[in-house]
Amino acid sequence: MPADPMPSHRAVENLIGRYAELVDDGDFAGLGDLLADATFTGSGAPVRGRAAIAEMFQDTVILYADGTPRTQHVTTNIVIDVDEQAGTAVSRSYVTVLQALPGLPLQPIAGGRYHDRFERRDGEWRFTERRVRITLVGDVSHHLRPVGADR
Questions:
Q1: How, if at all, do strands 124-137 and 71-83 pair?
Q2: Rounded CA gap, 54 and 74, in Å?
Q3: What phi, psi does 10 have (nearest 5°)?
């Protein structure tokens, strides 16, 4: 007897969690794959497509010797609305970004909201949109490159 498919709410929640893991692992190619069907809107112009999204993260986020940004993205207050018939879902959530480095004690560096859209294609849930709105900003100088900086 085959296992029951994962409930849609759980599948969408897993995508939200996977995004945080990939950012914190410094896996920008993985982020490109995760968001391949999505439009990503952060502080700059919207970005679409696997390669463009991976490149945007590579150009923006500072990675350290261990290959990570030394961050932890904590996603909370997740609200997911699924339309099973249409095969679509929307969600909203809070994000708090923590960072610690040698000489930089553990601290929150940013907080804000995610607004996401998802679509079920061939039985699999995928991001179709992620909008990030950061409303609280601390010391991000060890996390984000200044605009126009070289890698």
A1: unpaired
A2: 21
A3: -65, -40
**Letter string b/e over residues 25-58, b meaning 16 or more CB atoms within 10 A of that residue's CB:** ebbbebbbebbebbbbbbeeeebeebeebbebbb
Burial class (CB in 10 A: 0-12, 13-18, 19+), 75: middle
pLDDT in tens, 57-84: 999 999 999 999 999 999 999 999 999 9
Among candidates 19, 43, 40, 41, which has minimal Cα distance to 30?
19
- Say if residues 78 and 16 touch (Cβ distance below 8 Å): yes
User: What are the Cα distances from residue 47, in Å, to 37, 39, 56, 57, 80?
Assistant: 11, 6, 8, 10, 23
Cβ neighbors of 54 (< 8 A, separation 6 or more) are 28, 29, 31, 32
